[in-house]
Write a structure and sequence with these properties.
12 helices, Aspartate Aminotransferase, domain 1, seven-stranded mixed β-sheet, globular, alpha/beta, Aspartate Aminotransferase, domain 2, 12 strands, single chain
Length: about 375
Amino acid sequence: MLISDRLRNIRPSGVRRIFDLARQMKDPINLSIGEPDFDIPEPLKEEGIAWIKKGFNKYTPTQGIPELREKIASHLRKKGVHFEEVMVTAGVTGGLLLASLALIDPGDEVILPDPFFVMYEYQILLMGGVPVFVDTYPDFRLRGKEFVRKLSKKTKLIIINSPNNPSGAIYPKEDLMGVVRIARERNLLILSDDIYDDFVFDAPSCPCIGQFYENTLTLGGFSKSWGMTGWRLGYAAGPKGILQEMITLQQYTFSSVNSFAQKAAIKALDFNVKDYIEAYKKKRDLVYHGLKERFHVQKPQGAFYIFPEVPGGNAEAFVEKAIRQNLFIVPGSVFSKRNTHVRISFAASDETLQKGIETLRRIS
């Protein structure tokens, strides 16, 4: 067999399998994929086009163009995030891969609150690391005692994603501070995935780990807030020693990042997305109020997902039932060690959401 041993525990994403199936169906009610349903705002598209026409189409510096790195740094300082160095990455997923390559050795343990974004587990496994899961059910809270129970001499870092995919939970400051105390006592790095940090519905902003802990690697990007999913642009910020190694790794992996998208991203950081967030808050309310009488469900405070517990407690069976009704949602087992919930994306038109709600109520 020619395939490397490191791929033995890697399988295709369950989200992508659902997406591929949905593409084969006629007019499915698709509430499965985590991609904004709005296009890139026109001024940002025009900015990208302008730089293409100006000929800004060559390789860029490995760490990103200086003017975007400074703009990101300014953006993070305004948020109160601690960091020493900034780099531009090929999306948050590219930053996560570089961080995993730089930090995780075979046998290292990485703490993940459960439920979690599916890519964390598999990138850890790809490096030969060991994902260690901390249960946050039923209310999706970070409980310090649960973290302490899972720590060992092999623990290398902790990954926090807030607002969270798939639950839509925003971890409160007291939960984050509890994790920071544990990390500080043991000199652990925390990787904070802040990709949904603009999608906050019931407060002016959300707290993030990088505001409270110097030994934080913060990942963020432009895919969600500005709809730039296909332009593949993100950033990493944190301790200089780690960032320098990630920049070196980028030389030998991605080489450099999309040229014109970096120029557009400078403008994006000044582009107000308040109206988009307000529209998504209304979508959140539509879905939550449509489901709460039939499902046990936490009201999401951020991102654009809701994560209800299914009747009968078998999410995969429930998803199969939904598919027979032309509705595409994702079983929670894709994002969790449990198979009790389903992830529903409300990044869809109100008409599609209403159809989805009616179908879910009918089959519950």
